């Protein structure tokens, strides 16, 4: 699989800023085309798009005639989605607290579930939301995602003799086996799963990694304070350079877990 290019912008005040998301993160949904094909939405089906962001994939799924509801925890994202796609239904909803019972033929989710460590609550809500025979199609970071980067985070703390704060790697990156077991506990049978590399080239050359860290680890960086964060980021760059910097750009070791599971 060829490398994916990502542009991130430093010093964003809101990681989930909806306009920035559309401007800088179109790759998140552009790379998910194959996932919509795996979902194979049919006209008239009721589908839930879990973590719909600003609605690009929700709209693509709706084009085939499915009745889709997009939900996202972020009010900004939902407000932007409503503006962009006024004919579609969107609501603010927390993936850990889904309130639906046997309403959907399918639940779809792209690039969201790795942000939610409470995976048991999510899968339980998804299973409840599906009609019998319904399907859950999702893609997110899988086991080993950004592992070399996270190892670089740890080595940088140790090289600087800094005490490592909690929450260095707060994400949920399960293996196929772990996720299969979780799904089965909630009555969902895993029928398709793949864990694959998606090397991701960061834009802006040398600045790419610092931009990424400041954007996606924003709260963590704020907790450290800028006087500690700056030398730590420089040390992360030093520690990761031989693994993750090539031909003038940083290339992160993203890995994706793609699944399709059915409710009995
Ligand atoms: C990911 O898409 O795998 C990801 C994005 C931001 C932070 C961590 C992981």
Task: List ligands, each type once.
Answer: benzoic acid
Estimate what percentage of residues fall within beta strands: 15-25%
Order of helices and strands: EHHHEHEHEEHEHHEEHHHEEE
N-end to C-end Cα span: 34 Å
What is the number of beta strands?
11
Structural class by SSE content: alpha/beta
Helicity range: 40-55%
> What gyration radius follows from the Cα positions, in whole Å?
19 Å
Distinctive features:
264 residues, four-stranded mixed beta sheet, 11 helices
Brief rundown of the structure:
The protein is an alpha/beta fold and 264 residues long.
Could you please describe the fold and organization of this structure?
It contains eleven helices and eleven strands. By secondary structure, it is of the alpha/beta class. A seven-stranded mixed sheet has the order 4-3-2-5-6-11-7, sandwiched between helices. Helix 7 (147-159) packs across helix 11 (226-244). Residues 9-15 have low confidence and may be disordered. The protein binds benzoic acid. Benzoic acid (BEZ) binds at residues 111, 114, 141, 145-146, 171, 216, 254.
Please write out the topology:
Blueprint: E1 4-6, H1 18-24, H2 26-30, H3 33-39, E2 46-50, H4 56-63, E3 67-72, H5 75-84, E4 89-92, E5 104-110, H6 119-129, E6 130-141, H7 147-159, H8 176-185, E7 188-197, E8 200-202, H9 208-216, H10 218-224, H11 226-244, E9 245-246, E10 249-252, E11 255-263
Parallel strand pairs: 1-8, 2-3, 2-5, 3-4, 5-6
Antiparallel strand pairs: 6-11, 7-11, 8-10, 9-10
Helix pairs in contact: 7-11
Bound molecules: benzoic acid (BEZ).
């Amino acid at each position: 699989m060829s490398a994916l290019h990502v542009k991130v912008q430093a010093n964003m005040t809101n990681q989930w800023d909806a306009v920035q998301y559309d401007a800088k993160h179109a790759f998140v949904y552009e790379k998910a085309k194959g996932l919509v094909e795996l979902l194979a939405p049919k006209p008239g089906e009721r589908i839930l798009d879990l973590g719909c962001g600003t609605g690009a994939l929700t709209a693509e799924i709706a084009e085939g005639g499915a009745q889709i509801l997009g939900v996202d925890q972020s009010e900004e994202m939902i407000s932007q989605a409503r503006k962009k796609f006024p004919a579609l239904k969107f609501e603010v909803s927390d993936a850990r607290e889904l309130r639906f019972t046997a309403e959907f033929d399918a639940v779809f989710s792209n690039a969201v579930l790795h942000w939610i460590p409470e995976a048991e609550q999510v899968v339980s809500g998804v299973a409840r939301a599906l009609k019998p025979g319904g399907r859950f199609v999702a893609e997110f970071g899988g086991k080993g995602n950004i592992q070399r980067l996270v190892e670089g985070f740890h080595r940088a703390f140790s090289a600087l003799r800094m005490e490592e704060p909690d929450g260095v790697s707060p994400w949920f990156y399960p293996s196929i086996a772990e996720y299969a077991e979780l799904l089965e506990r909630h009555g969902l049978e895993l029928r398709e799963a793949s864990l694959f590399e998606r090397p991701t080239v960061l834009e802006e050359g040398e600045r790419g990694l610092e931009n990424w860290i400041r954007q996606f680890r924003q709260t963590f960086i704020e907790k450290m304070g800028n006087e500690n964060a700056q030398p730590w980021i420089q040390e992360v760059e030093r520690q990761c350079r031989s693994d993750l910097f090539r031909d003038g750009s940083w290339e992160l070791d993203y890995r994706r877990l793609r699944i399709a599971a059915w409710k009995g």
